[in-house]
Amino acid sequence: MRNIYLSLISGLLFTACSLDRVPYDALSTATFPKTEADVEMLAVGCYDDYANQDYTIYNDVFSDNGYCAINTNWAVFANGTATHAVPGINWYNYTLITRCNNFLHQVTTKEIHFNDPKRLEVLKNEVRFLRAWRYYMMVTAYGDIPLVTEVVPSLEDAKLPATPETDVVEFILDELNDITKDGALDVSPKQKGRITRGAALALKVRLCLFYKKYDEVIDAANEINSLGVYNLYQEGEVPYSELFKEANEDNCEIILAVKKVMNDYKNQTIIEFCNVIDGGWSAFVPIQSLIDAYEMKDGLTIEEAQAKGEYNPEHPYKDRDPRFYATIVYPGATYMGQIVTNDKFINTGYTFKKYSRYDTAAAAIDDKNDINIILMRYADILMIYAEARNERLDKPDQPIYDAINEVRNRPSVKMPLFDKTKDNFTKEQMRERIRHERRIEFAGEGWYYNDIRRWKIAKKLMNGSTVQKYDGSIIERRIFNDKNYLFPLPQQEVNDNPNLLPNNPGW
Q: What sign does the dihedral 228-229-234-238 (CA atoms) show?
């Protein structure tokens, strides 16, 4: 558990250094921070890499949405070969939590003059959000984890037993309830990328949904609406596509996005997403299961359309849900000024369009870029509201239909709307409609894996399924057993801290 430790004599602004030795090049807490500017700087340091693509977007490769060929860390969890010794992706990391705890300790124990005392409280609450975010990511992945809310003075003191999952969730919820009070966070800060009241409410919505606290989900979603800040983005010829373009960052739909700057080595989204036709890696690619999930533009599944003679397997990409064309690069599509053919692809024959500069024929593709990574957007709130309300009621009511229809009725999407009188969905039918809509709306954004885990359908969907290459050959066989609903505690962490044992069930 070495990554919990931070010596009291070290500062927050250290770079990559081993935490079992003193970083002598760091700033001393005896002399720093002293001024308002120092505190602002420390707060910005807590934002560093709090949610990169490894914690968000790439989650789709664990699901029946996507596949990753270039990184075995992702593959071992998707194909069931992960172990506690070789866990693949390791999200068990207290670095951000340590930074946040140290910040809160420094600004609480020192008298630092602020021209506006409210500013200090806002900064504290931004940092509390970042700590809550990290705990949310860890507790939903691992279950029981140590809850550390103070500076830990030594490695020995860091060897803490795991805190029950329910207690960690309660802590996160208490923090979010406190920092979403009036005035605790800015609603519309001047500086983009800052944590807002809307972002804190959105995290509360996600947390409560994961743990089936439906009443609290509904209340928080309504509170987000009452802010009057967010709406579905509706500008441009194809608004759904425009959401993911650099020119439209910070639009009205975005509740929280990780701000990136050019030449940031931590943001390789473009080259990893883009296909080999334009110098990319085709690293994170859609699989056939996702392709087949897109409805026809008239709302029929491809099976229903085929039964009616309205689907031609020879032209499988014709007349699909418009979000398909905004999300997927497929054979026959025009991309970067070229007609895409299978021989330009590796892996599955598809790549994701989101986050890529697909409409510029001669655009140079760099491995570093400044495209923001969207963490939460308003469409998610609408869909979560619909899901929570459906679970609370015996039969779906009009507000549920309205929330889903608002997403489906976005300009450039315009999928057939659901009619309460005509469709008359049961609770179970509406549940399936919502789950399908979430998969399509957020494909390639990294949240579907968490969805199928919390719905407890991942084993049914994944176990025994295959990923096929564009020529039909099998690339990967998927294995998902009950133990996979939680990630294994990495062996290195257990070696450092035996008090974490026993490991999660099955690991």
A: negative
CB-based burial, 405-430: b 16+ in 10 Å, e otherwise: bbbbebebbebeebeeeeeebeeeeb
**Confidence at residue 22, expressed as pLDDT on a 0 to 100 scale:** 40
SS3 275: coil
Q: Which residues, 6+ apart, have CB-to-CB distance to 228 below 8 Å?
A: none
Residues contacting residue 502 through CB under 8 Å, at least 6 positions apart: none
Distance separating alpha carbons of residues 140 and 144, to the nearest angstrom: 9
Residue ranges in the chain modelled with pLDDT below 50: 1-26, 265-267, 362-367
Per-residue confidence (pLDDT) for residue 362, from 0 to 100 = 46
Query: Encoding tokens for residue 429?
Result: 């039918």
Six-digit token string for 227: 């802010």
Provide the H-helix boundaries in 425-498.
Answer: 427-441, 448-454, 458-462, 491-496
Query: Tell me, what's the pLDDT at 259?
Result: 79
Q: Of 506, 203, 257, 135, nearest to 384 (Cα)?
A: 203
Domains of the chain: 1-16+26-52+97-179 (1.25.40)
